[in-house]
Amino acid sequence: MRISSRSRDNTRVKLNISSRSRDNTRVKLNISSRSTDNTRVKLNIRRWRMRSRDNTRKISSRSRDNTRVKLNISRWSRDNTRVKLNISSRSRGNTRVKLNIRRWRMRSRDNTRKISSRSRDNTRVKLNISRWSRDNTRVKLNISSRSRGNTRVKLNIRRWRMRSRDNTRKISSRSRDNTRVKLNISRWSRDNTRVKLNISSRSRGNTRVKLNIRRWRMRSRDNTRKISSRSRDNTRVKLNISRWSRDNTRVKLNISSRSRDGAEITPESN
């Protein structure tokens, strides 16, 4: 299924959705948008079930100036129940920030790590990411995890901005009870178009994963995109796209997909 639309300022948004049989139950979502100056923002979401890795997700975004933000999330596998989270970001000056977090269950207690929710053995992980400093150059990532024996593992990653504000990223996190993880990535394109990526999760009773991607021009309102995912077993992907037509009427597209038993896509247009 392919969906193509143009907004009021002739910005094109293209949506490709493909699915496969129940053997691998693959669901692929491609979102490509171009602004008036042909600035392209592409988002690829691939979700499929394998023999041992049932819930792999890949999210990547690449702009025209080769500014790349890639997020890979691998869910539990049936053999070793491993979770891998990769966050890779490249700026214009080829400055790379990569965050790898692996989680697996072993006999010991201090090797279990997970982000954004409680694990099967009730291990909690807190992800603290500080804001920009006063000189607007410093980014600090703090990751602390506590196992059952109160063993703490802390990881600090610092990155400095290379050039102008065109490729700046802001990452922040607030968590009092160690259950919420919020990741904000902001980028300014050449036409002063802002791209914001929000990832927040809660895990008190039920696991909530929310992914918001908003792209808009500074003075207009017709380029708002929202993508959210909420699931207890991480099997549902919900896609909401809102835009304003020429007659100032709002068009909303909702797409929900589940692939626990098989790939099922249900589009709703309002």
* Shape annotation: globular
Biggest sheet overview: 8 strands, antiparallel
Radius of gyration: 19 Å
End-to-end Cα distance, whole Å, is 17 Å
Low-pLDDT regions: 1-270
Q: What report would you give on this structure?
A:
It is a single chain. It is built from no helices and 18 strands. The chain is mainly beta and 270 residues long. The protein has one domain. Strands 1-2-3-4-5-6-7-8 form an 8-stranded antiparallel sheet, with no helix packed on it. It is globular and about 60 Å long. 29% of the residues are buried. The N terminus and C terminus are likely disordered.
How are the SSEs ordered, and which strands pair?
Layout lengths: L1 E5 L5 E8 L7 E8 L5 E9 L7 E7 L5 E7 L8 E8 L5 E8 L20 E6 L8 E9 L5 E9 L20 E8 L5 E11 L1 E11 L8 E4 L7 E9 L5 E9 L5 E6 L1
Antiparallel strand pairs: 1-2, 2-3, 3-4, 4-5, 5-6, 6-7, 7-8, 9-10, 10-11, 12-13, 13-14, 15-16, 16-17, 17-18
